From TrEMBL:
Signal sequence range: 1-22
Regions crossing the membrane: 290-312, 353-373, 454-479
Name used for this protein in its record: Amino acid ABC transporter
Entry-linked PROSITE patterns: ABC_TM1
Domain ABC transmembrane type-1 residue range list: 288-468
Membrane topology: Multi-pass membrane protein
Length: 486
């Protein structure tokens, strides 16, 4: 009985402490002050959602435009700070917000009760219906939710539309993807029969592609689920209040209907007239530059770290050997995508100033090091033990034996496998696009968003990746032949 009383008292004190802590945090909110002090409002968005947010090319540069971007501009102006846009996958936005990589998220996001548990939301700034995008040839087949029974429906993961299809179209197959552009490609190629999206966005795609059509499937949408709002980090009342003042100002002047939406439509119309691939060659060039940069740096660091871990694994000192084994097995046993997200969102919470490019390079380098370590270890173990014994009999130390006898011979054996790892890095570096690094894959997605063309940018990116890997393969082959004659 005494133990129970002590336990109840402990629980009471713990709950009281947490309550007090929450009140202290709320009363000492510095979210608005923090943004003003650093002089920059960092905004997270997924720029593939016209007319809310999308990209256009102006003077050879990528520009983020749309209804949401105009609201973000006005908010930053009212705060007297600069605006910085971070473009990433929609389902990564709230993670970026919670880990403070961004100050706010504006991306046509619905303030659902589930999301409100994790983040704070501003007032609703725009309401739109939930529509379906279908192929024009299917216009007579699909009229409402019931006519889609047994069909495959696409929706953006993490979106309200994904939830609506999941809950109200249970007789259908649901296909979720992170990018709307990919869903539209799937629709045009027959992989899905329809794509659920917000009204204005569906109409934007249909107006720029005559093979597509918009219908209203009559989703049963609750009032609490409709509308778009700005998301902020939990317990940021001062920043939310400032955003609400901006939204009130915008609504009072009716800027959304009179200025922002017409302006977005103008950008979309101009973009449609200039959407040839040649106009976007600078995007692909920038993507190649970042891809090669990430690959080159990761190859250098990966090789150095890989060599170190291979020697550690061959060490007779147990703790050093085990550390190397644990690292190599752990890295090889987890996906690179997860590692990239952990470095950026996980370690990035400790090192707030870490840029996405640096996080991507670190993750790719650490991943490559594990594979390089195993390649080098196997190469060293392929050298007959007599070589090391002969070197030691000549008076060489173990270090000298490895440096002058073992490693040079092992390098000839492992060069083909090492070359394959370097070539693989060019392709695997594309994963860093999920955290907003402007590599070739990221730039390809920007071109898709800007041109409303899905397959052609993919084909161009595929050719460019082939050119890079084939070129590197020939360079590595040249050195391999030189080694054979050495």
């Amino acid at each position: 009985m005494k133990v129970k009383k002590i336990l109840l008292l402990f629980i009471f004190l713990l709950v009281g402490s947490l309550t007090c802590l929450g009140k202290v945090q709320a009363s000492t909110d510095t979210s608005l002050q923090h943004v003003k002090q650093k002089g920059t409002l960092v905004v997270g968005t997924s720029a593939d959602y016209p007319p809310y947010e999308f990209t256009v090319k102006q003077n050879g540069q990528t520009k983020y435009v749309g209804l949401d971007i105009e609201i973000a501009k006005q908010f930053a102006k009212n705060l007297g700070v600069k605006l910085e846009i971070k473009n990433m996958n929609f389902d990564s936005l709230l993670v970026a917000l919670e880990t403070r990589k961004v100050d706010m998220v504006i991306s046509g996001m619905n303030p659902t009760p589930e999301r409100q548990k994790s983040v704070d939301f501003s007032k609703i700034y725009y309401r739109g219906k939930q529509y379906m995008l279908i192929n024009q040839k299917d216009a007579t087949r699909f009229k409402n939710i019931h006519s889609f029974r047994g069909q495959t429906i696409g929706a953006q993961t993490g979106s309200l539309q994904y939830q609506l299809v999941q809950q109200q179209m249970k007789g259908n197959h649901l296909k979720g993807l992170a990018k709307l552009n990919d869903l539209v490609i799937a629709l045009q190629s027959g992989k899905v029969n329809a794509v659920a999206m917000e009204e204005a966005t569906a109409k934007a795609f249909a107006e720029n592609n005559t093979s597509l059509k918009v219908i209203n499937p009559n989703f049963n949408v609750k009032a609490s689920q409709t509308g778009s709002a700005i998301a902020f980090h939990k317990n940021s009342p001062s920043l939310v209040a400032a955003a609400n003042r901006t939204i009130d100002q915008i609504k009072q002047k009716n800027l959304i209907n009179q200025k922002y939406i017409p302006l977005a439509g103008k950008y979309m119309s101009n973009n449609s007239r200039k959407n040839t691939m040649w106009n976007y060659w600078t995007y692909f060039a920038k993507g190649i530059e970042y891809t090669l940069l990430i690959t080159a740096v990761s190859v250098c660091f990966g090789f150095v770290l890989g060599t170190l871990f291979s020697l550690m694994r061959l060490s007779k000192i147990k703790i050093i050997h085990l550390l190397a084994v644990w690292y190599i097995e752990f890295v090889r046993g987890t996906p690179l995508m997860v590692q990239v997200m952990f470095v950026y969102f996980g370690i990035g919470t400790v090192i707030q100033a870490m840029p996405a490019l640096i996080a991507g390079i670190i993750a790719v380098s650490l991943n490559s090091a594990a594979y390089v370590a195993e390649i080098i270890r196997s190469g060293i173990q392929s050298i007959p033990i007599g070589q090391a014994e002969a070197a030691r009999s000549l008076g060489m130390s173990q270090h000298e034996a490895y440096r002058y006898v073992i490693i040079p011979q092992a390098l000839k054996n492992i060069w083909p496998a090492l070359g394959n790892e370097f070539i693989t890095l060019i392709k695997e570096s594309s994963i860093v696009s999920i955290i907003g690094v402007g590599d070739l894959m990221y730039e390809m997605q920007l071109v898709q968003s800007a041109t409303y063309k899905g397959v052609l940018p993919i084909f161009i990116a595929m050719v460019l990746y082939f050119v890079m890997t084939f070129g590197l393969s020939n360079v590595l082959g040249y050195f391999e032949r030189k080694m054979k004659h050495a």
